[in-house]
């Protein structure tokens, strides 16, 4: 991947129906399939579409992100966020959504999980043993730019389940 692309993670009630629809809409096959999880890497428009089978989800929107080309890009994003004073958390080599990723979460008002995820995929993780609830995402540990250990994105108010969920996104 040479450039970054927006990530849109959706909760869907019927994963196979959603896959058929998005394959037709974007004219590309799914890039990755795992139980309860599918993602698409769309070149035009540059989009990483992630589908979580979550028929009980209260919102169709799971989370928002930006897929970056490299770990250096993630580090550069974290440095830029620190320079402009935006609250953020860094997570390195996180196992999440059947992949190993470096990422930074930047706090943002009025979005799912209260943050945007900026990440790069380091490796596939087809045997990910961590069971997760795909209605919540990536609440594993992370660190601030000064290295202090913190939790993942802050849970939405009134959504205590997010605090107990394991990592499961992107």
Characterise this structure.
- There is one protein chain.
- The protein has 170 residues and is α+β, with helices and mostly antiparallel strands.
- The chain has one domain: 2,3-Dihydroxybiphenyl 1,2-Dioxygenase, domain 1.
- The protein has three helices and ten strands.
- It has helices spanning 15-26, 71-83, 161-164; strands at residues 5-12, 32-34, 37-42, 47-53, 61-67, 88-96, 99-107, 115-124, 142-143, 149-150.
- The strands form two sheets. It has an eight-stranded mixed beta sheet, covered by helices on one side.
- A hairpin with a 7-residue loop joins β7 (99-107) and β8.
- The longest helix has 13 residues, at 71-83.
- The two termini are 15 Å apart.
- The relative contact order is 0.19.
- The model is unreliable at 130-137 and 139-170 (pLDDT under 50).
Brief overview, please?
With 170 residues, the chain is an alpha+beta fold. It is 17% helix and 37% strand.
What descriptors fit this protein?
two-stranded antiparallel ribbon; 2,3-Dihydroxybiphenyl 1,2-Dioxygenase, domain 1; 8-stranded mixed beta sheet; 3 helices; alpha+beta
According to CATH, the fold-level topology is: 2,3-Dihydroxybiphenyl 1,2-Dioxygenase, domain 1
Task: Give the DSSP E fraction (strand runs of 2 or more residues).
Answer: 35-45%
Order of H and E elements: EHEEEEHEEEEEH
Number of helices: 3
- N-end to C-end Cα span: 15 Å
How many β-strand runs?
10
Helical proportion?
10-25%
* CATH architecture title: Roll
Q: Radius of gyration, rounded?
A: 15 Å
**What spatial form do the alpha-carbon principal axes imply?**
globular
What do we call the CATH homologous superfamily? 2,3-Dihydroxybiphenyl 1,2-Dioxygenase, domain 1
Unreliable spans are: 130-137, 139-170
Average of the residue pLDDT scores: 79
- Strand order within the widest sheet? 2-3-4-1-5-8-7-6
> What structural class is derived from the secondary structure elements?
alpha+beta
Q: Oligomer, anyone?
A: single chain
Our count of domains comes out at 1
CATH class value? Alpha Beta
Largest β-sheet summary: 8 strands, mixed
